[in-house]
Design a protein that fits this description.
alpha+beta
Length: 189
Amino acid sequence: MRRSLFAFLLVAFAALWSAPAHADPTADLIKMGTAFSAVHSFHADITTAEGRHMGIDYILPDKFHASMDKGMEVIYIGSDVWMKMGSNWMKPPVQGMMSPMKAEFDNARMGGLHGDVAKNYTITDEGSATVNGTATHKYHVVDKRDGHTVDMFIGPGHLPVQIQTPGDKGLSTITYSEYDSVPDITAPM
């Protein structure tokens, strides 16, 4: 599960940085990448094809709070990690275990995951769409190298509202909100 979620996040963020919007879909998604890189915090609700759910608050440069189904939570601040299972928080003896996920967020933020967008992706403008009451513009992105597809819904300020990734087990979705308004994440103990 962790591996598939990590792969899903990696692909989703990679697509974020390598996609475009209306008149020129590639240029539009590049604008989205630029707008997203200027964001200091955001919330993401993730639903996997397997039906798992996770809410993530991310505050740059180094604060991350994930709430997963079944009551598990993880807080990552700098190199410190806390985990909650049930009602008790603990600081695991092995710290830095969230570093790979944080590295992928940082990588995506820097826009360096896939290089030349026009060369690596076919981006199709799919027109207007509404996601949870928000007017968006939909783009269908196909990776020319492996055929992987992602549907991106870009909203106000050129920011992503939702990303949908089809897979063998169904559709995985990331829905973004609370841009630059996530409350501070503090150590739980």
